[in-house]
Amino acid sequence: MSETTVPSTPATVPTTPDAASRSRTPRGRAPRIALSALQIVLGLFYVFASALPKLIAHPSAAESFDKLGWGSAGMYIIGTLELAGGVALLIPLLSSVAAVALSALMVGAFIVNVTVVHGPYVATPLVLILPLALIAWARRSHNAELVRLVRRRA
Q: What residues contact residue 110 under an 8 Å CB cut-off, 6+ apart?
């Protein structure tokens, strides 16, 4: 007599927070790598190309903020917000919140560009909102983890 064995399969799929988190992130290796690369590129862009000129008071940034009537205080505030957002994009737990915050900052930049500046780069903030929205959506599972961590500390 030969003995046959049937591999056992679980009756239910585990519903642990870890399994739920994975189901909300991009599936497959290539999309995860692409999303991480996008976060790194945007994070570096916000830190070096956007925040740094404001924080070192580069003449072009200072002139723009003087033209707006915001002066150096407004320039340093916006630069600090962009620096914080760019760095937070590189921290997995903060990436979704950072993307939402930077999107809100870009909405403000768009409004200022349309109503006050009327410059050639009016659409740039809108172009930046698209990848930020993708990051916010793809990394939304981190929000629950972040809330749990904050509640535990409080």
A: 122, 125, 126
Nearby residues of 107 by Cβ (< 8 Å), 6 or more positions away: 125, 129
Tell me the one-letter amino acid at 31: P
**DSSP states of 79-104 as a string?**
HHHHHHHHHHHTSGGGHHHHHHHHHH
Q: Are 108 and 114 in contact (CB under 8 A)?
A: no
Listed in sequence order, the residues at least 6 apart from 24 whose beta carbon sits closer than 8 Å to its beta carbon are: 138, 140, 141
Q: Which two tokens stand for residue 142?
A: 């981190």
DSSP-derived letter for residue 26 is: P
Q: What pLDDT digit, counting tens, does each position of 29-60 carry?
A: 999 999 999 999 999 999 999 999 999 999 99
Please report which confidence band the pLDDT of residue 117 belongs to, taking 50, 70 and 90 as the band edges: confident
Distance between CA atoms of residues 62 and 55, nearest Å: 10
CA dist 138 and 40 (Å) reads 15
